[in-house]
Amino acid sequence: MKKSLFNNIPDALPNEWVEVLAESADVRIERIVSDGHASPDGFWYDQGQDEWVLLVSGSAVLTFEDETVELNPGDHIMIPARRRHRVESTSSTEKTIWLAVFHENDPI
Amino acid sequence: MKKSLFNNIPDALPNEWVEVLAESADVRIERIVSDGHASPDGFWYDQGQDEWVLLVSGSAVLTFEDETVELNPGDHIMIPARRRHRVESTSSTEKTIWLAVFHENDPI
C-alpha cells in the first residue's frame, strides 16, 4: 500500500516527530518532521550506525565538528557512524521533512 | 559532502539511469531516473531483496499481479522480496526520479 511523505503530519509538533516507515534487521527507514526544532545547546549526535539522510522539504543546517552544511529539498548526505553532528536549525516558516536510512556500516 | 537528487542528471537518457548513492553489506540506496521508460512487455521484476521506493519527482504507474498503483511525488511503497511487479509507465513530460532502498528482509 502506498503512503505519502507529505500526508498524516500533525499540525502541532511540540517535539520533532519520528515515524518508522520500514524496518528490518539491517536497516531502519524513518520519516522525521521538524518544525523549527534544533538540537539542544551543546548536544551532539554520536551514532553507532551510518545514517543517510535526505531533506525532502523545508530547510535545515547541520553542524559537524569541521563544517556546517545547509540542506535544501533534494539534498542528501551520508553521516558515517561516530561522526558527531547536530541540527543547528530547521526552517521557521514551514515544516521540514527528512527521510533517514539507518544501517550498519559493514563493508560489502 | 552533500549532493542533490536533482543535480547531475544527463539530458538524454536512452535507458533508465541508475546511480548507487550509498552501499554497505546490508543495504543499497539508489537514485533511478526514468524518462518515459517502462518495463518491457511481459517483463516482471522478481527480486530477492525488499525494495522500499519513493517517487521524488515526475510520476509513474506500477503494476503488481493484483493491483495497479499510481505514484506521485512523495508517494512511497514497500515492495517485499518476490512480489512481482513492473513499471507500467513513467511521465512522458518530465523525468521521473526515484529513490530506492534495497535490503535483506531479515526479521528484527
Automatic annotation (TrEMBL), chains A, B:
CDD domains found in the cross-reference section: cupin_reut_a1446
Superkingdom, according to UniProt? Bacteria
InterPro entries in the record: Cupin_2, RmlC-like_jellyroll, RmlC_Cupin_sf
- Which residues belong to any copy of the Cupin type-2 domain? 46-102
Designated name of the protein: Cupin type-2 domain-containing protein
Instruction: Report the source organism.
Output: Pontiella desulfatans
Tell me the organism's taxonomic lineage.
Answer: Bacteria, Pseudomonadati, Kiritimatiellota, Kiritimatiellia, Kiritimatiellales
